[in-house]
């Protein structure tokens, strides 16, 4: 994922693909049976599997975002030092500002991730609370 951190658009595309589980949670939960069809599908197993997928996906995305934040912060520090020694270098100044923007967007992605996570678990709990409780 470190290579994707350098290609920001590639990173955002990868995040979008990684968020597929969250985007399709409604469809996955619609596979749970209603009261009249309860015996035909193992709802506990379905909920347990979906919960594991959600956890794995959230952890992977959060680690990826944090890794890119670390790389970007390191790049920003190097550019800041270079900028201080070469105050007249327009190219370094431009790269510095671009890296600052990138770091802010990455930090905002963590907030987006929290919102997505909260929404997904809320939806999950609404449909699976009768069959599965996290931590079991």
TrEMBL record:
Transmembrane spans: none
Gene Ontology cellular component terms for the protein in this record: mitochondrial intermembrane space
Pfam families: MIX23 (PF09774)
Domain of life of the organism encoding this protein: Eukaryota
Alphabetical list of PANTHER family matching this protein: COILED-COIL DOMAIN-CONTAINING PROTEIN 58, PROTEIN MIX23
Annotated family: Belongs to the MIX23 family.
Protein name: Protein MIX23
Provenance organism: Drosophila yakuba (Fruit fly)
Gene name tied to this protein: Dyak\GE19624
